Fold:
Amino acid sequence: MLQHSGNEFASAWRMVAEGTASTKIIMAVLAIMSIGSWSIIVWKLVQFRRMHREADVFLDRVQAAERLDEAYAWVRGLHDSPFTRLFKRGMGFFGELRPGAARAGSDVRGLSPAQLEVLRIVLEKEEGEERDDLARGLSWLAIIATAGPLLGLLGTVLGVMNSFLGVAAAGSSSITVVAPGIAEALVATAGGLVVAIPAAMAYNYLLGKLNRFTGELEGISSELIGALAREGRI
Structure:
């Protein structure tokens, strides 16, 4: 079985190597797209795995803090992550609206309804920026997943055209004349699918991960506002 698969691969490679210029160009473009697609997939998997660990640590420590000022002091000592940046941005902006209100035991008056709405807008803007940063590269996976089969189809169409032109030049419609050109043309379609299928699967999987982290960021914003309310600061 393995020997049979190896023979098929060798035959496909030989058809590309001995094929027309259009087939070689399209297969070269598909190879570049495949390399780019797998590079993005590995990069994003590593990034999302790191985000998952950072989210667990951040949520555990913040939830263990008894007061916001204690959590804020701990968060400021951490290295940057989407979660720490969002938390620090919210607390920093709250401190700008009501200087001294973020300190424990402060008697500074809380936020007005209009200021609370502005705080929500600032948090939503920060969430959007973090989402955009985490989404980098995903659009390329979508493009590759869409363009791969189309490029393969283009290679097939050009290959079939060349095959029929060869039949006309040879003056014979024998299967031995037509088959090699058709087989070469179909290799482009197979190549396009090989490139597109992993890209499409990875895009949908990573998009689900992105939506999960977006939900966690929204949850942090809601928890921050809720904690401010519980401590009588808004």
Q: What stands out?
A: The chain has one domain: 2-230. The mean pLDDT is 80.
